[in-house]
Design goal:
Among the domains are: 145 residues, no CATH class; 81 residues. It contains 31 helices and no strands.
Length: 687
């Protein structure tokens, strides 16, 4: 009833907060009434706690992180039963869930309650400290198994066993099976628990710190926007802008995924939000089901590299590099633009080759109508950007942005009521339509509670993945595995930077099979970051951006492509075939990081003419790569021209101005010839 006040959230809005499992599995069973109410209560409590810490009274790191993780694990054990969300809990399942729920409370709040005593006996831990630490590790791994998946739990266990292996460790016999370069002295359980639970380099380390502060508040901001109808607004705006062009729904998917992804920061959530709208329309227009789902998956993956949220990446990079968050966001804008441009070009060329048209104007909203209905969604985003540029803390910015949504929604409501006379009714009648003061209050409270639930569901995966990532980072720091891995990397690559980047890409794909993107980035940057920066001389910021971009490939790369599989479930296409399509459309994910490495000025800056030149080179080369892969631009491209374009595209990556100039001239010449040929033959297609 309050659609204009709150907007109308899409059906998939709630799915946006899910981990993605629900897209490829049967619907989860309804929770018992008491459990459902407790989930709501804890979700609201967690959001209020985060808002208090963000906007009213910042907390010390141990209070912030321990309380956050405790509440996250408690919600996880309620929301995800031990035998799966698609089976009844039963008596046994209920007892197990209750036991882990209590364990989450005990292990999570133990440090909070006894923090001063723990600090006082630092290095001389009591047996209670150690046993609670063991309980915390087990509880965390079980929570991550339920929410994130079995893969991350196995990887966490492998790293724990690795730390215990060695001549002085609890499991000395296990060290005999490790290659010499990976061997280490080994550590006992007490030392490992102290590292993982009682210090700042394990579970409660930097990754969880970022998730418990910046990421959560921005995820909540996105959730409030989503439940108030921002998702529908951005999708409608994308359709209004591109729907009449060739392949309109596919182009709308690219645009909508860019805007929605900048808020959700999750590829699967992006697919869940925009896919139910874009994929059926793409299929109706003539795209193959696998193409439609692949386009959506590739575009949605781009959301995780799109500022301001970048799937938590911007905050993590800022913390690791100590470079201001705003600078991370600014340097990421152009690469994100290049990525979406490549996807957009693929969509356009496929539409031309297959003779696809746009949607009729009668089926599309106008930009003016969309803006009139949803202009108020842009105000909080504008405020967010302005406050970030002003240098305010990201946590405080997120807090004020959330308040701004509520304020502009209220302003919009007042405007609608006061303008009622223009539509033939009085303000009193308009208020009556909304259910009066009671109806307005009830609807507002309901939407805010829904936003808390959606925000918490979105945060579960990130927070638990970051906590387990803390275990991995803690073990790497304890055993010196990072330095060993750097030595291995140098040995295999023989100092060749291209081979080193290929190794990083392969490692990111393998790690991505078991870890979500954020955790994959954390592990990779700890393992390969030192070698790429110190041994190959790549600037630190570019190292982090390259690793972060390559960490996204598990979303679209066969055989395990989570975003592609989610799109396939909506499109009714084969998952593997869809993942190959997504892999093709997401080629920018692999090529653009190479430009960052070999043309670093587009990231770290330099003389203005050189920065502009490098930006132009990257743009021209990406157009060439897309044309080569599709064999088409203005018209069909013959095999010889494709070979020249491939060589010239590679030349654009060469760190030499003369070679870049020759390559750009060759690309422009070939594509110019393709344009003239298409014009003469009448094959030149319009947009």
């Amino acid at each position: 009833m309050l659609n204009k006040f709150w907007g109308s959230a899409t059906k998939s809005g709630s799915a946006a907060g899910a981990t993605g499992a629900g897209l490829v599995e049967p619907p989860a069973l309804a929770q018992p009434w008491a459990v459902a109410k407790l989930i709501v209560l804890l979700s609201v409590g967690l959001c209020l706690f985060q808002l208090y810490a963000a906007g009213i009274q910042p907390l010390s790191l141990f209070y912030q992180r321990t309380i956050h993780l405790a509440l996250i694990m408690m919600i996880a054990f309620l929301m995800f039963p031990v035998f799966g969300r698609h089976k009844e809990r039963g008596v046994v399942g209920g007892l197990i869930d209750a036991a882990f729920f209590v364990a989450a409370i005990v292990s999570g709040f133990y440090i909070t309650i006894y923090l001063d005593e723990i600090f006082a006996r630092a290095g001389f831990w009591s047996q209670t400290d150690i046993w609670i630490g063991i309980l915390a590790v087990i509880t965390l791994l079980e929570a991550s198994r339920r929410v994130v998946g079995l893969g991350i739990t196995i990887i966490g266990l492998v790293f724990i066993l690795y730390a215990l292996a060695g001549p002085r460790g609890t499991l000395p016999w296990l060290g005999e099976f490790m290659p010499g370069i990976l061997s280490h002295r080994g550590y006992n359980i007490e030392r490992l628990v102290a590292q993982l639970y009682l210090g700042q380099e394990g579970i409660f380390g930097l990754p969880l710190g970022v998730a418990a502060t910046y990421v959560f508040i921005f995820v909540l901001f996105g959730a409030v926007l989503e439940v108030t109808g921002a998702g529908k607004f951005f999708i409608d705006l994308a359709y209004a802008a591109t729907g009449r062009k060739r392949g309109g729904p596919a182009k709308a998917a690219v645009v909508a995924s860019c805007t929605m992804g900048s808020i959700t920061g999750s590829a699967i959530a992006n697919v869940a939000t925009t896919g139910p709208f874009t994929i059926p329309l793409m299929k109706r227009l003539g795209y193959k089901p696998s193409q439609a789902a692949g386009i959506e998956a590739a575009a949605s993956t781009g959301g995780q590299i799109t500022p301001p949220l970048m799937g938590a990446g911007a905050f993590l990079i800022a913390e690791y590099t100590q470079i201001p968050y705003v600078q991370i966001v600014l340097v990421s804008i152009y690469p994100a633009f290049l990525y979406f441009l490549t996807v957009y070009m693929f969509v356009h060329l496929i539409a031309i080759k297959q003779g696809l048209k746009g949607l009729p104007a009668s089926e599309l909203p106008s930009v003016r109508e969309v803006m009139r209905e949803g202009w108020h969604f842009l105000a909080p985003l504008a405020l967010l950007i302005w406050l970030l540029v002003m240098g305010l803390s990201p946590m405080r910015v997120g807090f004020f942005a959330i308040l701004a949504i509520l304020v502009v929604a209220a302003i919009r409501f007042v405007i609608d009521v006061t303008m009622a006379r223009r539509h033939g009714s009085s303000p009193a009648q308009k208020l009556a339509e909304y259910g009066g003061a009671f109806g307005i209050t009830r609807s507002t409270a309901s939407k805010l509670v829904e936003a808390c639930e959606v925000g918490v569901r979105s945060a579960l995966t990130v927070s638990l993945a970051c906590a387990v990532g803390g275990i991995i980072v803690g073990v790497i720091g304890l055993t010196g595995l990072g330095l060993k891995f750097s030595s291995l990397m140098m040995s295999f690559s023989q100092g060749n930077i291209v081979l080193a980047l290929l190794l990083v890409l392969i490692a990111s794909l393998v790690i991505g099979f078991g870890l979500p993107v954020t955790a994959s980035y954390i592990v990779l940057i700890i393992l390969v970051g030192p070698a790429m920066s110190a041994e190959f001389g790549i600037p630190l910021l570019i190292v982090h951006l390259v690793v972060f971009w390559y960490s996204q490939d598990s979303n679209v790369t066969p055989p395990i492509a989570l975003a592609a599989f989610a799109g396939a479930a909506i499109a009714g296409s084969k998952p593997v075939e869809t993942s190959f399509q997504a892999w093709k459309f997401a080629k920018g994910l692999y090529i653009i990081p190479l430009f960052m490495v070999f043309n670093p000025e587009i990231i770290i800056g330099g003389p203005v003419p050189l920065v502009i030149w490098n930006g132009v080179v990257a743009l021209v080369a990406l157009v060439a790569f897309v044309a080569v892969l599709e064999g088409y631009l203005f018209g069909r491209i013959d095999i010889v021209s494709r070979g020249v374009l491939t060589a010239a595209g590679i030349g654009c990556l060469w760190p030499s101005i003369p070679i870049e100039i020759v390559s750009v001239i060759a690309i422009v010449g070939i594509l110019g010839y393709n344009y003239l040929t298409a014009s003469r033959t009448g094959a030149l297609a319009s947009t």
